[in-house]
Q: What sequence folds into this?
């Protein structure tokens, strides 16, 4: 199974350690594509420049080839929302992970979509269980 991981890169730099943990957990279920902002293994496999057009083309191709999209959506991101929209149009299986926080609300376009599996979490242990239930 090819799993595309998405998370806020430019706005979510503080989430890098969490994203790395998620990617490591996802590897138990298949090949992870995307998420190089948090993972040195994927980053080391990149070739060429990392301009915006390069990133768009690379990630679009990876998303097209993925079976599943897993997105951490706590930090709002236009790019992640765009990827979720594309995956929805491609009828991919999609999981979103949102950290419970009384001061934050998940976008209604995400939480209201019947095509997405939306899960909230408090701890990484919660994420592990969610991933197991979704990907097994």
A:
């Amino acid at each position: 199974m090819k799993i595309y991981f998405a998370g806020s890169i430019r706005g979510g730099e503080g989430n890098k350690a969490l994203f790395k943990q998620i990617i490591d957990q996802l590897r138990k279920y298949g090949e992870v594509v995307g998420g190089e902002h948090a993972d040195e293994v994927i980053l080391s496999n990149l070739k060429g420049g990392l301009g915006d057009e390069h990133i768009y083309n690379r990630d679009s191709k990876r998303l097209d080839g993925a079976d599943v999209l897993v997105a951490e959506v706590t930090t709002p991101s236009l790019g992640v929302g765009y990827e979720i929209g594309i995956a929805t149009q491609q009828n991919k299986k999609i999981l979103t992970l949102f950290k419970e926080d009384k001061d934050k609300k998940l976008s209604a376009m995400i939480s209201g979509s019947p095509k997405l599996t939306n899960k909230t979490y408090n701890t990484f242990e919660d994420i592990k269980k969610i991933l197991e239930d979704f990907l097994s």
The radius of gyration is 14 Å. Residues 12 and 75 are 6 Å apart (CA to CA). The first strand starts at residue 2 and ends at 7.
